[in-house]
Design goal:
The structure is a single chain. The protein is an alpha+beta fold and about 170 residues long. It has a single domain, classed as Gcn5-related N-acetyltransferase (GNAT) (Aminopeptidase), CATH 3.40.630.30. About 20% of the residues lie in helices and about 40% in strands. The chain has an eight-stranded mixed sheet, with helices on both faces. A hairpin with a 7-residue loop joins β4 and β5. α2 packs across α3. It comes from Actinokineospora iranica. Keywords: Transferase.
Length: about 170
């Protein structure tokens, strides 16, 4: 059973229900997925996850994730790193920007961290537009941050501070 945690502007973020992961995987197009890596991984970072729904119909549109990152050794240097994955049929209607804004507002309202950031492939024009529309500022390029298709890919970094919100 899903529980809506935030809703605005026609989209809702909800706890995933049984079957949501399979439904997302069945319709996912693998666009911008990174290459597999069999090397040992560090312990997983606690990851928050919510599904994105059409607030009127309840249709599954995708998911958002978030985890804490540190830019220094203290809590004051921590930020939320967020991601979004929309199903191909849900793209191009502004749902991504609305979901990112909703998630950012939710994180600022429910936690004490003052920064939310996201990164996307420099060639992912749709994600870049969604981040800008959600109120993020373009901050720069992280060179060679991801491996996809056997090629090192640059990521565009975006961020928003609590003080940037009205």
């Amino acid at each position: 059973m899903r529980r809506v945690v935030a809703a605005a502007d026609g989209v809702a973020l909800a706890t995933p229900a049984d079957g949501d992961a399979a439904a997302l995987a069945a319709d996912w197009d693998n666009a911008f997925d990174v290459d597999p890596d069999d090397r040992p991984q560090p312990p997983p970072v606690a990851l928050g996850r919510a599904v994105v729904l059409d607030a009127v119909t309840g249709a599954l549109l995708g998911q958002v994730t978030w985890h804490e990152v540190r830019w220094g050794r203290t809590r004051a240097c921590a930020a939320w790193n967020v991601g979004i994955a929309l199903l191909p049929a849900a793209r191009g209607r502004g749902a991504g920007a609305r979901a990112l804004r909703l998630l950012t507002n939710h994180l600022f309202a429910t936690t004490d961290l003052d920064r939310v950031e996201a990164a996307t492939d420099v060639d992912n024009a749709a994600a870049r537009r969604a981040l800008l529309a959600a109120g993020f500022l373009a901050e720069g390029v992280v060179r060679g941050a991801q491996l996809r298709g056997g090629v090192r890919r640059d990521l565009a970094l975006f961020g928003v501070l609590r003080g940037d919100r009205p």
